[in-house]
Write a structure and sequence with these properties.
With about 80 residues, this protein is an all-alpha fold. It has helices at about 5-25, 30-35, 40-50, 60-70, 70-75. Helix 2 packs across helix 3. It has one domain (about 5-75): 434 Repressor (Amino-terminal Domain).
Length: about 80
């Protein structure tokens, strides 16, 4: 079961990712391909993250940041304690 805090984290991560992707003028598929996902899974993987249905593994957070030319901190939301 997903906690409220986890849900909030996913939603904030998703919003950060979408904002940065759109600022860079990339489609979901283009971003997925830049991260190394296959042609078949690139768009769907980014969609799942942007719709807060899942989170990428740590390796892919770095890949996303590199593809978006940003810091990982720009993607990872600051959560209140």
């Amino acid at each position: 079961m997903v906690t409220d805090r986890e849900k909030q984290f996913r939603e904030l991560f998703a919003a950060n990712l979408k904002d940065l992707r759109m600022q860079r003028g990339l489609t979901q598929k283009q971003l997925g391909l830049l991260c190394g996902w296959t042609e078949a899974s690139a768009e769907r993987t980014i969609q799942r993250i942007e719709y807060a249905q899942g989170l990428p593994g740590l390796v892919y957070v770095r890949e996303l940041a590199d593809a978006l030319k940003c810091k990982t901190d720009d993607l990872i939301p600051k959560m209140p304690k």
